[in-house]
Write a structure and sequence with these properties.
With about 170 residues, this protein is mostly helical. The chain has one domain. The protein is about 65% helix and about 0% strand. It has six helices and two strands, in the order H-H-E-E-H-H-H-H. The chain has a two-stranded antiparallel ribbon.
C-alpha cells in the first residue's frame, strides 16, 4: 500500500452505514472526532500529564501510546489527509506516501518531546483544516477519492475510540 489510505473495496463504510451524502459523511466524521476528543480529554484529565501511566492505545509493535501520542498521531494523519485531498481537489496528483507504519514510526520519533498542550493544538488545528477543506468542497466534488479519505478517517477515529474505551473499562483501571 503506497498511499496513506486504504483502497476502497467497492463499497465505502459510509455506504454500508447508509451514509452517502457528503453532509451525512461529514456529520459522522464530526461525531467520531468529538467522541475521540472527549475520551482522550477525560483520560488526560485522569492521568494529569497525558504521558505517564496512560495507555489508551497500542501500536503495531505492541508498545503503548499515551494520550499525547494519540493526539499527535491523529493530528499528523489529519494534516496528511488535508494535504492529499487539497492536491486532489485542485486537480493535482496525490503524492505517493510511504506505508502507514513507516509514517507512524517517523512521526513518533519526531513527536516524542511534544507536550500534551502542543499535541492538543496540532490535533484541533489539523481537524479544523481538514473539515474546512471538506465543507468548502462542492458535493459534486466528493468523488471516490474524497469519500475514500473520509471513510478511512472515520475508520481511523473508530480505531482510536475503541482502544481508549477498552482502557477506561479495563479491570482495575
Amino acid at each position: 500500500m503506497g498511499r496513506a489510505i486504504r483502497p476502497s473495496a467497492g463499497c465505502t463504510s459510509g455506504e454500508l452505514m447508509g451514509e452517502t451524502e457528503p453532509s451525512s459523511l461529514l456529520a459522522r466524521l464530526d461525531e467520531l472526532h468529538d467522541r475521540v476528543t472527549d475520551i482522550l480529554d477525560r483520560l488526560a484529565d485522569t492521568t494529569g500529564s497525558g504521558r505517564a501511566g496512560d495507555d489508551p492505545s497500542t501500536d503495531e509493535s505492541g508498545g503503548t501510546w499515551s494520550v499525547t501520542d494519540v493526539l499527535a498521531h491523529i493530528g499528523r494523519w489529519d494534516e496528511l489527509s488535508r494535504s492529499d485531498l487539497g492536491a486532489h481537489l485542485s486537480g493535482a496528483s496525490i503524492p505517493e506516501q510511504p506505508k502507514y507504519r513507516v509514517l507512524n514510526a517517523e512521526w513518533v520519533g519526531k513527536d516524542v518531546e511534544l507536550s500534551l498542550a502542543e499535541a492538543r493544538t496540532r490535533y484541533k488545528a489539523a481537524y479544523a483544516g481538514l473539515r474546512q477543506l471538506l465543507v468548502e468542497a462542492e458535493p459534486e466534488r466528493w468523488d471516490g477519492t474524497v469519500r475514500d479519505y473520509v471513510d478511512t478517517t472515520i475508520e481511523h477515529y473508530k480505531d482510536h475510540v475503541r482502544a481508549p474505551l477498552e482502557f477506561e473499562v479495563a479491570p482495575g483501571g
